């Protein structure tokens, strides 16, 4: 354990996956961590029922797993027990043909993981840390970075508390309050774009074999894609033999398809094999009950303020999900910050020191973080945007397949 910051207090805003990993990392370095989350504790039975209505799964890759491993190797191993490896994508052509495209010649995979399980698992990991205090149903409303105080609203009791801090981590997602508050003191470049597409989640139930045991209706070791030019359907496997399908389409198209009597024949003509596996009743239920959600891309620069504030994860960079890297990059943010904090400690040659030395070290690490991380984050965000065209169309074109053969795939 690093001892230099033992008496110092870090406030982490947002107990999503990135906030939890950041809290674990800081606690291991000796910080007193206060973790604030606006929602209820996901692990409560009442919250679980609500969350299950929209349990999206995620593709977690080596990037994300390595980040968890850097903070807690045991936690990374535990999460790997819960994933389903996906070795490639399976293209579903309109005429029923299937095309398996492997991600890697040497067998590297991405992994399907239940979003709620991942978040709950990370909350469990954080709870084990004696120097972390967690506050659920507490929303951060206001932050004065110069005075190092913030206002937290206790939603349960309708009260506001003033909380002081030495270091504040904004891991509060795409619509980050911490980012908005930080912009008042930082000359931050900020860019936000809603793409013209939305997504709706649909559940593909488990099938059954002859003795009646549940089975997957599609190959579970692939990420399934139905590319249809301006829209697409994808499906990722879950441990209970179901698939979570996500339909991406332009908002205007979804407006036109709004009535179920229009949607059903459209879905049938575009995704006949998926409809067979989902079932008409389930499809209409999910389509009419599940929300249509927007897709936002945000970019910020810099990500920090002096020695006292930093944005991590979606709070700093929300990207469209077509590269499956949004969360992976958010977790990697924590790993990169950890490396820079370690380096500053080594370079200044002492793990402990007077307060002002620690503050200077932290300021240097945060500055380097903003400088060194920005280009990588912009690059991956742009890849994600470009990959939408690849996923919904290019993967089916002869030129793409030819190029893959030349690349030795
Ligand atoms: P969040 O998960 O958004 O967590 C932020 C937390 O902060 C929330 O719990 C929120 O309640 C809390 N909060 C917000 N404001 C406040 C406040 N003022 N006070 C207190 N608490 C607050 N990424 C991948 O890597 N792989 C994928 O396959 C993938 N698939 C995706 C599919 C879809 C359809 C979408 C939309 C995204 C996908 N992503 C994927 C991206 C991924 O979901 C996000 O990058 C990830 O959830 C970001 O995590 P986070 O912890 O930064 O933010």
Q: Give the overall form.
A: elongated
Q: Describe the main β-sheet briefly.
A: 7 strands, mixed
CATH topology heading of the domain at 9-86 and 110-192 and 296-389: FAD/NAD(P)-binding domain
Radius of gyration from CA coordinates:
23 Å
Low-confidence stretches are: none
Q: From the helix content, strand content and strand pairing, which structural class follows? A: alpha+beta
Can you tell me the CATH class of the domain at 9-86 and 110-192 and 296-389?
Alpha Beta
Cα(first) to Cα(last) distance is 45 Å
Count of DSSP H/I helices: 13
Widest sheet: strand order?
Answer: 6-5-16-17-18-13-19
Bound molecules: flavin-adenine dinucleotide
Mean pLDDT: 91
> Which CATH architecture of the domain at 9-86 and 110-192 and 296-389?
3-Layer(bba) Sandwich
